[in-house]
Each structure stands twice: as C-alpha cells, then as structure tokens.
Design brief:
heterodimer; A: 256 residues; mainly alpha; 44% helix; B: 578 residues; alpha/beta; FAD/NAD(P)-binding domain; six-stranded antiparallel sheet; 22% helix; globular; binds flavin-adenine dinucleotide
Chain lengths: 256, 578
C-alpha cells in the first residue's frame, strides 16, 4: 500500500474560482450589461451561469436532470425563499465532484471494507463521492422507473416527495437495481448535506446565487467584523451579506 | 533515495502548540533546534481578512486538518469488535501543517483544578472502598499544583488569556490575575449568567485565548483585540487575535539563528541505538518520497497526543499495554471527554450567532469534582456547565424541533431556526478504564506503510451516570429560561460512542501517561520516556485521565515544565531524571 499524500485542496479551489470568474465575465459581456448600473450582487447573480444553459463538468445530461429534480424537491422555492434551483445548487454539486472532496482524496479508501459494520462506525463504503453520486442517481432512476414507469425527474411533485421520503428512511433496496453495497439512506444523507451546503455556502462555490439564501435567513456572510455589535443584544443586524468575491447584497427591506 | 541530514541538538516532531513551545524554549537555551512538520507552512498571509470567512472550506472540507487518508485511526468500542478505519473526518479534527490544531482550535483557555490533578487521592479520601466501578484506572498527576501553576501562568501570559478575576470560587490559587479582562457577553451569555446566578451558581466568562485588548506577550509578539468575526472554531484567525503558535511564538522563533524548521517532513519513526536505551534521531519522508534520517541528541514528540502514541508504538519505545494482563504502559489510559446538553429555541429573540469569538461563553464549575458531594452517587468526576456561542455559521445551524429537514416548509424552518437558538451544555470529565486503550491496528496502514492507531473506546458507565445526574440539574436552568422549544442532546447510561460525521471535541488524551511508577506510566514526571531517556513527550498523551476543563492550558504548562527540566537538569547530565 503505497501512495503519495493527497494534493493540497487549494488547487481545487483555484480552479473553481477561475471557472466561476470566467463565467461571470462572459455572461455579463454577452448580455451587454454595463456593470455600473447593477448592484454588485446583481451583477454577480446575473453573471452566474443560468442553470438551464449550464454545461455540467462531471454529470451527464440525464444525471443533471435527475440531480436538479432532487435538489428542487429538497429545497423548493416558495414564498419564504428562492429554493435550490434559483440559487444554482445543482451547479454547486456538479463543481464539487471535480474537487479533492468529490474525488475522495482526503478519505481513507483502502480495504478491506465492511459496509455492514454498523452506523456507529460512520461511512464505510468503498466509493468516493463522485462514484457514490453516479451509482446513487442511476439506482434511484431505475427504482423510480420500476415503481412509476418514469425516471425521478419525470415524477409528479407528490411522487418525488414520496420517493425521497422512502430513500431517506432506508426503504429502497438498491440491491435490486444492481447496487448491493450502496444503501439509499447513505446516498440521501449526502444529497441533503450537499444541497444544504450549496444553498448556504459562499457563492464562490457556484451555489447560493446572489447570496439569496443568506438574505433570507439574515446571515451577513463574510463581513466577519462585529466588535461594535457584540453588546447590542436582541437587535437584528442591519446590514446585508457580503461574499468572498467582494459583492454585497442589500436586505430587501432596506433601500440602498 | 536515502539521505542523512547534519545532526542537531534537538529535533521537534510536529509544529503545533507543544512543538512551538519546546522549540523556542530549547532554542533560547542555546541548543541547535530543528522542527519537522508533516504538513505545509501556514503563514499569516494565507489567513488575511476575509479569506477564512469560508464555512464550506474550513468547517466542512476541513481545509487545514489532518485527513483520514494521511494519518487515520481505526475505531471500535470494545475488544470483541473489529475496528474499522475512520474513513471520513468527523468526531475529532486534528490539525495539519504549521500551527497544528492550535491554528483552528476554539481557544477556551480554562485550567483544571488542584483536585483534578490529584483525583486518585480525592477518591481514596471521599469514597468507601468498592463504591466505584472496578474497571476504573484513576491515577494522580505526578506534579503538584504549586509546581505546575507557574507554568500555566506563563502560558496564560503567552496567549494573553482574557478572563474574569475572582469570579470562580473553585479555581486553584493563581500566581497572577488574568493578563486581560474577559470578552464581552453575547445575549446567550447574559441570559445564562443571569439565570445561573439566580439559582446560586457561580458563572464567569470562558477564559479566552482570543484576546480582548491589544497585547504584547513575553516573547514580544503583538496580538490585536478580537473583532468577534464568527469564524474561529475550525478556522484560522483573520485578525491576529486568537492565540496560535503563529500569533504568539513563531515570528520570534523564526528569527533565531540556531533554529530552523522543515515542512512536508512526515516522521515515521524514532530510531534507537542498538541497546534500545537512547534514540539516534528520527526518520522522515519528505514530499518527494525521500527517506531522510535526522540525527539528534534529544527527540521531542510534539505531534498531538494520538500521533505521539502511534510514533512510540511504531518505534518500539516502551511496551504496548495489554488490557487483559494490565501489563505494558504505551496505549494505557486513553481518555476523551463527553458532551451533553440542550439547545433552546426562542421565537422572539435575536442571538446574532455570527457575532462570536470561539471562546464566547459563560461557564460555572459548581459541578467540578469535590465541589458537590458525589461520594454516595456511584460516580466520580464532574462537568463544566456552559452556554457558548463559538460560531454561528449557517450550514451547520441547529434546526427547530419538529420542523421539516427538507421539502415543503424548509425555507420557513431555516428562517425560524437561524439566530433563534442558544445552548446550555456540559463538558464532562472522562475516567480512564482498563478497557479503553490504544494500540496498532493489525490490518490498516497509512500511505507510508506504517500501521494506523487503533482506538478501543466506549463511554464508561461512571461518566454516563454522572451525565444523567447533571442532566436534571441543567434542565432546571433550561426550564427557568423559558424557551419555546428544546432539543434534548443529553447522554444517558444507554449512550455509546459513535464515529458518525458530527463533531464532538479534539480533547483526546492519555495513552502515554505521566506517573511516578514505570509499571503504570509511559513517561516520568518530567515527560521523559522511562525507557528511552532522550525522548520527551510533552502532550495531552500524558494525562492519566481527562478532567472537565479544556486540555491546552495544562498541555502548554507541561511543555514549559518539561523544557525547564531539560534546560536545568538534563543538559548537564543526560540520563533518566527520575
Ligand atoms: C476544533 C478544535 C477546537 C479546540 N478547542 C480547544 C479549546 O477551546 N481549548 C483547549 O484547551 N483546547 C482546544 N483544542 C485542543 C488543542 O488544539 C490541542 O490540545 C493542542 O493543539 C495540542 O497541541 P499539540 O502540540 O499536542 O498538537 P497540535 O497542535 O495538533 O500539533 C501537532 C503537529 O504535529 C504535526 N504532526 C503530526 N504527526 C506528525 C508526523 N508524523 N511528523 C511530523 N509532524 C507531525 C501536525 O501536523 C501538527 O502540526 C481544540 C482542538 C480542535 C481541533
């Protein structure tokens, strides 16, 4: 068992920054919008890739459709907030697949593996994250076709909720769809965690477009300086978020 | 390729808290010192404002932490289970690279008490024979309060510890007051403090190594007042405020001509002379895969408690502990810490959780051992009870009970939950037992081909009974605060250790404990190996059992104590100090 230590994660980050940075520049230029007339956050949001025309770096078109439908079901848009699709969560997850995290470079992957060791031992599958997604999306679609005669993306809203409920409770037997080791519950846990991450992480990673999820909950993002606020108890913080890209998003009820 | 370096007087393995302390103190004594750090350098420029304000990278992708692939652990609860590798980081999260865990720690700098150091004596004086579980292996720390307190005092001055003088009636005598006043209370602190006082407890601000005012430490390093940025625990400081090896020691150390350090130098083994009584130096593998031998007269293991124990075992320093016979000392008395408590939700309160230093919080020690009578209750130990607001970043936010975890209504659940909760928690001491121990895994190896460390550990019933007793006390505070909803996150006598992804603490101690008897300790009272006298192990691995306080105040002090013994005695007369 010899291998070299994992490559530093910074490399992955730089690549993602480039990807998103160039996407912003391109879209804004193509649209012919002068940056001066938009707030910084609007410019960044307008520059972020449009989910419909986004070309995934890892998933194929079919996988991306299924993943988007799952994200949409996990965090639907409603009167309280924008939801996973409007904030580009599927873009976030696609980009994560091409990082050291997606490739499982930090995880201990040597065998022997005992997937039945029990919950107390945490993750014990022989799959890195991108393999897990590939297998999990295929098995979910196969199961969905078997149950409803249509892939997950083509189910009704109600059927989708039902299907994810069954997955989350470990009621789906992936073994019947060619995956004897992968259990639906584990796959669901990653889907939910990564969707939540994409919704609430800094926009530099491709999701949380326009910092919309931060605006919704009142989180000021990367402001990271509150010396004057620590003794002001029980008063909502008045400023909207800023992100690592240097953009800011005004709160909806505050006129700029 | 095999390479041999020029010899040095002392080689320090690892450049976190203990490594930085040992290196500067030995260099100040005139020794030629070299530190070998496995990870990369981590200069301040990497953490310039606002780069660390990145929850995904630091708290979820573990940007500056030791990865399971690089140096993992295998885990099981009892000897009859087959240990599995901890494949994904979670329960505890060691540091990697210059600064070690000291770069992303929470910086609560609270001391143990004199009773904690002499727990065996306390048990003998207060408990009837047979009143406690037979599996306990409690031992005294082989140093007195008066010997070690001055070193805690100095370490407090190095880190600029900010705290409230005279508010904790249970603290041991101090040489000097806190160097700086305490951090400010956030809303949760004020609420908890008020209620605890009303109920007769003695709350005080968490002593903090994120400083409250501009400060110059004894090494001349300058630390700026904390700006409550909210990115502290799991993050490197973006404001030169949180004490770390970088902010308090390394700038000064790096200017000393008789000191240098190498990064990307993963030490795999301490090399012994043929008689096995002294070390010749250490072997490390560099980033290009070269095996390099670094000769040294003195070897300091400063690679974090668990890694230190593994290096000792892989290097055959001392004898592996056997839980069946009780023989052997390396791996004996591994201990951790238990967390239990409640999260409360208040619809009408704004806690602004993003306004926080890592140590932001209030605690009390009324349930420390000896501070309440537990002699008839069937357990020994205690807890610090606290309400802290260490970080308030949204991906890992607490969700209101009964709210959907996803799907319809999830946006509303996020909005209603975020910023409307506070916690009251207990950090509970952990007795050492016969069955909780460390050894080398027979199956799994790291990328260098060295066996991984195997942890056999479950929560002792002694500690779970203590938790159950305290849950009721803490619930009284919770109820009196009148929350709209409560999430019960308490431990009970049915709880078992698990290694799912949730974080618990990185307060792993023991495994190479200090003592007066070489049959029950791996190092003597000066942190010197009983078996190989030029190997010193100043680290949490020396704790005979764990107390309820965070460990680093004592770990830092033990390092200064060890450095002093080397300077004052060992250099004149190299050999066993006891
Ligand atoms: C998230 C978190 C929060 C914490 N909060 C607190 C707190 O609030 N209060 C408190 O008292 N304590 C806290 N701690 C614990 C504290 O960080 C440790 O007690 C302290 O850092 C231990 O110092 P050390 O020198 O033993 O190890 P470290 O500081 O971890 O340094 C060890 C160094 O050795 C290096 N190393 C390891 N193996 C090798 C090898 N084979 N070759 C070369 N180098 C190697 C590592 O890369 C690392 O740099 C916290 C820890 C964490 C992770």
């Amino acid at each position: 068992m010899t291998q070299t230590p994992s490559t530093p994660p910074q490399q992955g980050l730089r690549r993602r920054e480039l990807l998103i940075g160039s996407a912003i520049a391109m879209t804004a230029a193509t649209l012919g919008i002068p940056f001066g007339r938009l707030t910084a956050a609007e410019a960044a949001a307008a520059g972020a890739p449009d989910l419909a025309s986004y070309t995934p770096t890892f998933f194929d078109a079919e996988e991306m459709r299924a993943l988007s439908a799952i994200c949409d079901t996990l965090i639907p848009a409603d009167e309280d907030g924008p939801g996973a699709l409007a904030t580009n969560v599927p873009v976030f997850i696609d980009l994560q697949m091409d990082t050291s995290y997606g490739r499982g470079e930090d995880w201990y992957m040597e065998g022997p593996h005992d997937p039945n060791a029990g919950d107390a031992f945490g993750y014990q599958l022989p799959y890195d994250l991108r393999t897990l997604y590939r297998k999990g999306l295929a098995a979910t679609d196969a199961w969905s076709r078997d149950q409803h005669g249509a892939g997950f993306a083509d189910l009704s809203g109600e059927q989708r909720v039902e299907a994810l409920n069954a997955l989350s409770k470990g009621e789906v037997d992936f073994a019947a769809y060619g995956e004897p080791m992968l259990d639906g519950e584990t796959f669901f846990d990653f889907l939910l965690q990564n969707t939540r991450e994409g919704y609430l992480a800094d926009p530099i990673y491709g999701g949380n477009k326009g910092m919309a999820a931060w605006v919704m909950i009142g989180f000021p993002g990367a402001r990271a300086s509150f010396l004057e606020w620590v003794t002001r108890h029980n008063i909502p913080y008045p400023l909207g978020p800023v992100d690592l890209g240097g953009n800011f998003a005004p709160l909806p009820n505050v006129k700029a | 390729m095999n390479i041999t370096n020029e010899p040095v007087d002392a080689v320090v393995v690892g450049l976190g808290w203990t490594g930085a302390i040992m290196a500067i103190e030995l260099a100040k004594a005139g020794l030629r010192v070299r530190a070998l750090e496995r990870g990369p350098d981590r200069p301040n420029a990497e953490f310039a404002y606002p780069k660390p304000a990145d929850e995904l990278a630091y708290a979820h992708r573990h940007k500056i932490m030791q990865s399971p692939r690089q140096a993992g652990f295998t885990v099981r609860r009892t000897r009859d289970e087959t240990a599995q590798p901890m494949r994904v980081l979670g329960k505890f999260r060691l540091g990697d690279g210059v600064g070690g865990s000291g770069l992303h720690w929470t910086a609560v700098q609270i001391r143990p008490t004199p009773t904690d150091l002499k727990l065996k004596t306390f048990v003998d004086e207060h408990y009837a024979p047979g009143a406690l579980d037979e599996e306990l292996q409690i031992q005294n720390y082989p140093v007195s309060w008066d010997e070690i307190e001055p070193h805690m005092d100095f370490f407090d001055r190095v880190t600029g510890t900010s705290g409230e003088d005279g508010k904790d009636p249970f603290e041991g005598p101090r040489t000097s007051p806190y160097p700086l006043p305490a951090l400010k209370d956030t809303l949760n602190c004020a609420m908890f403090r008020g209620q605890a006082e009303k109920m007769g407890y003695h709350p005080f601000s968490n002593p903090s190594a994120a400083v409250s005012q501009a400060y110059t430490n004894p090494y001349g390093q300058q630390i700026a007042p904390c700006n409550y940025c909210g990115y502290c625990s799991f993050y490197a400081c973006l404001n030169y405020s949180k004490a770390s090896p970088q902010t308090t020691i390394l700038d000064t150390l790096n200017r000393m001509p008789n000191y240098d350090y190498l990064t990307g130098a993963n030490v795999t083994k301490v090399e012994l002379h043929p008689d096995g009584k002294t070390a010749r130096g250490v072997t490390y593998v560099d980033n290009d895969g070269n095996e390099v031998f670094q000769p040294a007269d003195i070897v300091i293991l400063a690679s974090f408690s668990l890694n230190n124990v593994r290096l000792m075992l892989n290097s055959k320093i001392g004898q592996q502990y056997d839980p069946l016979t009780g023989e052997g000392t390396v791996g004996r008395n591994y201990a951790y810490q238990l967390g239990s408590g409640y999260t409360m939700f208040f619809k009408d309160k704004e806690f602004n959780p993003f306004v926080a230093a890592g140590p932001t919080g209030v605690m009390f020690n009324d349930f420390g051992p000896g501070n309440f009578d537990s002699s008839q209750l069937g357990f020994v130990g205690g807890a610090k009870v606290h309400s802290s607001q260490a970080t308030g970043n949204p991906i890992s936010m607490a969700m209101m009970p009964g709210s959907p975890k996803w799907g319809p209504g999830f946006n509303k659940a996020l909005k209603d939950s975020y910023g409307h909760s506070m916690a009251v928690k207990m950090t509970i001491s952990n007795v050492s037992t016969r069955g909780n121990y460390l050894d080398l895994d027979p199956t799994y190896k790291d990328p260098y081909g060295m066996p991984m460390l195997r942890m056999t550990y479950d929560y002792p019933q002694n500690d779970l009974r203590l938790a159950e007793f305290l849950n009721g006390k803490v619930k009284e505070i919770v109820d009196a605060l009148g929350p709209d909803m409560v999430v019960d996150g308490t431990l009970t006598t049915k709880s078992r250790m698990n290694y799912t992804a949730g974080y618990s603490s990185t307060h792993n101690v023991g495994g190479a404990v200090m003592g007066d008897d070489p049959r029950t300790s791996a190092v003597n009272r000066y942190l010197q190996s009983w078996d190989v006298h030029n190997v010193f192990v100043p680290s949490g691995s020396a704790f005979p059992q764990n107390f309820q306080a965070n460990p680093t105040a004592l770990i830092g002090a033990l390092s200064y104590w060890c450095a002093q013994a080397i300077k004052d005695r060992y250099l004149q007369n190299p050999g066993p100090l006891v």
